[in-house]
Design a protein that fits this description.
The protein is α+β, with helices and mostly antiparallel strands. The protein has 5 helices and 7 strands, in the order H-H-E-E-E-E-H-E-H-E-H-E. A hairpin with a 4-residue loop joins strand 3 (83-84) and strand 4 (89-90).
């Protein structure tokens, strides 16, 4: 369900992740990186849930994802994805952008690898979610080992 989707009209305004990953896996690209600043539980936060509906809890691992696709997600399957209102972004998006601007180069070699970016993002998001919103939010990275070591940016 996109941020502006209507859960009352999910067939018209939603897009199944399974279909998205199938289509991305068929692209002629060598690799595809997906960043989802959303939650999968439907439990609140940045997710959209119809009044009275029960959350559907799913995990990213339950989806078949091509070996050339890497997925960064804002939270695990049963957590809420927080908005970082004071920064004007989702909490996860804020730290991805900050990481890509250079803070994600944790070893100082002038290169930011996918795994290195994730190792920067995860503790930052977890810390602010706990401290500011009193909730647990643990970003996830699902990718084959070859992509985790893939260089995203060289400065």
């Amino acid at each position: 369900m996109p941020y502006d989707g209507d859960p009352s009209f999910i067939d018209e305004t939603g897009y199944p992740l399974k279909r998205l990953y199938e289509k991305l896996g068929k692209l002629q690209a060598k690799e595809v990186i997906v960043a989802l600043d959303s939650c999968f539980s439907g439990a609140g936060g940045r997710s959209v849930l119809a009044k009275g509906a029960r959350p559907l809890v799913m995990t990213m691992e339950s989806l078949a994802i091509s070996q050339k696709v890497a997925v960064f997600s804002a939270a695990s399957g049963d957590q809420i994805s927080s908005t970082y209102e004071e920064k004007g972004h989702g909490l996860f998006t804020y730290f991805i952008l900050k990481g890509l601007k250079g803070e994600g180069d944790t070893n100082g070699d002038g290169k930011i690898e996918m795994g290195e970016l994730f190792e920067y993002i995860k503790p930052q998001v977890e810390r602010i979610a706990r401290k500011t919103y009193n909730n647990e939010q643990s970003p996830q990275l699902i990718a084959p080992n070859e992509l985790i070591k893939q260089r995203l940016i060289e400065r």
